[in-house]
Automatic annotation (TrEMBL):
Protein origin, superkingdom: Eukaryota
Binding site for Zn(2+) 2: D125, E160, H412
UniProt entry tagged with the keyword Glycosyltransferase: no
SUPFAM superfamilies referenced in this protein's UniProt entry, alphabetically: Bacterial exopeptidase dimerisation domain (SSF55031), Zn-dependent exopeptidases (SSF53187)
Binding sites annotated in the UniProt record for Zn(2+) 1: H92, D125, E187
GO cellular component terms listed in the entry, alphabetical order: cytoplasm
Free-text cofactor note: Binds 2 Zn(2+) ions per subunit.
Protein name in UniProt: Peptidase M20
Residues of the Peptidase M20 dimerisation domain: 206-310
GO molecular function: aminoacylase activity; metal ion binding
UniProt KW keywords: Metal-binding, Signal, Zinc
Signal peptide positions on this chain: 1-19
Active site positions, chain numbering: D94, E159
Length: 451
């Protein structure tokens, strides 16, 4: 009896240690356990972990530091024809912060529950794809698959805070140029249904400030053209425009991400006193701020005209400024007003990747999903922004995709989790995608010159 018991104990130990160290789920959980949350993301340890994984698979690894302590890790699986444009799989190393007291399990514990849920900040956004890429390549290599095109995987810092020290430095670099990238897959979002979601564009965020001025006056008088009156009139006009866009969404004619959103984020007015506001003074200045998001289908000049003529017209003593959250080729300054908006690539084309047969990569990608037993929903514009915009600015076709079906969308939320079965299925989806894209012969020249 004691012998049997110790045998069972030995077997238990063997399997538990074994499963801790050698399974795809264990490797995913280890990657989730690095605390990569802002404001102080740990980049060094996950990068060492990824390099050790790359070594065990037999991938080449290089690290670039465009900004000290903010590494970009690049893994490479050389293709048999290195002259063909390569395929790049991107993910970001960092995560948004988590509030541990609002979580059912510590956010960097990667707790695996009995029903197969893995709880961690980053489980969906986007550490899943980071390791799935590697597991897919591990399996393809084990089967003796040889890619025709070179496959690169990039791990970039700071995506969650705008990517300015990450992709915004990497993508315009000589090092990136040398990769001769023909097609990119970057992160997408979970799907609550049976079908996978795919994103062909991001909306472009603008920060809009409008300011009204007018003669100050006694609170008891009715003035024409006072600052408050002018600002309130503008807010009415903007609200009407917002309603017209929202109505289209409510009628089911477009998705939230396909219309222009304009949402008030602050109001600033009033003469302050030590106890509050002077209640009998009409102020000479009043200001409001808006978060404006433009889909790439919108002509930016039309919005600029609308702002100048209707939202903040000079004839009503209004001024305005807008900051496009831009980046990209050249230098970045957060308060730079750029005339040519980031809705266009370097050739002046809308920043979106075509999802029809005129993009030769699209049918290859779509068929790869189907070959893995999956289906895609109608391609979408992402409501927010990702690093994909930097690649699209260079004219490189880029799709956002994270293989998560039947999963609640929990990115940036409390109790972010991913089910083990969903995670494992994603690996086989990437096996299909990586083998199809890397075997694709049709695109024998680079899509666009980037010189
Ligand atoms: Zn993300």
């Amino acid at each position: 009896m004691p012998i049997l018991r110790s045998l069972f104990f030995f077997l238990f130990l063997f399997f538990s240690v074994h499963s801790e160290e050698d399974t795809p789920i264990a490797r995913f959980r280890r990657y989730l356990q690095f605390n990569t949350a802002h404001p102080n993301p740990n980049y060094a340890d996950p990068v060492s972990f990824l390099i050790s994984q790359a070594d065990s698979i037999g991938l080449q690894a290089r690290t670039f530091e465009f900004i000290p302590s903010k590494p970009v890790l690049l893994l490479t699986w050389p293709g048999s024809d290195p002259s063909l444009p390569s395929v790049l799989f991107n993910s970001h190393l960092d995560s948004v912060p988590a509030e541990p007291d609002k979580w059912s399990h510590p956010p960097f514990s990667a707790t695996l529950t009995l029903d197969g849920k893995i709880y961690a900040r980053g489980a969906q956004d986007d550490k899943c794809i980071a390791i799935q890429y590697l597991e897919a390549i591990r399996n393809l290599k084990a089967r003796g698959f040889v890619p025709l095109r070179t496959i690169h995987i990039s791990y970039v810092p700071d995506e969650e805070i705008g990517g300015f020290d990450g992709s915004a430095k990497f993508v315009p670099s000589k090092e990136f140029e040398d990769l001769n990238v023909g097609f990119v897959l970057d992160e997408g979002q979970a799907s609550t249904g049976d079908e996978f979601r795919v994103f062909y564009a991001d909306r472009s965020p603008w920060n809009l400030k409008i300011k009204a001025s007018g003669a100050p006056g006694h609170g008891s008088n009715m003035y024409d053209n006072s600052a408050m009156e002018n600002l309130m009139r503008s807010i009415e006009v903007i609200t009407k425009f917002r309603d017209s866009q929202f109505d289209v969404v409510k009628a089911g004619e477009a998705m939230n991400s396909e219309v222009i959103s304009v949402n008030p984020v602050y109001l600033k007015a009033g003469i302050t006193t030590p106890t509050g506001y002077a209640m009998n003074v009409q102020p000479s200045e009043a200001e409001a701020g808006f978060d404006l998001r433009l889909p790439p289908t919108v002509e930016p000049d039309l919005i600029k005209k609308r702002i100048a003529e209707e939202w903040a017209p000079a004839r009503r003593n209004m001024t305005y400024e807008y900051y496009m959250i831009s980046f990209g080729i050249g230098s970045y300054h957060p308060l730079m007003i750029i005339e040519k908006g980031p809705l266009r690539d370097y050739m002046g084309r809308p920043l979106m990747t075509l999802t029809n047969d005129s993009n030769p990569w699209w049918p290859v990608f779509k068929q790869a999903i189907e070959a893995a037993g999956g289906k895609l929903t109608r391609p979408e514009i992402l409501a927010s922004t990702t690093d994909a915009r930097f690649m699209r600015e260079r004219g490189i076709p880029t799709l956002g995709f994270s293989p998560m079906t039947n999963t609640p969308i929990l990115l940036h939320d409390h109790n972010e989790f991913l089910k083990d079965t969903v995670y494992l299925r994603g690996i086989s989806v990437y096996e299909s995608i990586i083998s199809s894209l890397s075997s694709f012969k049709g695109e024998s020249h680079k899509m666009h010159s980037t010189s």
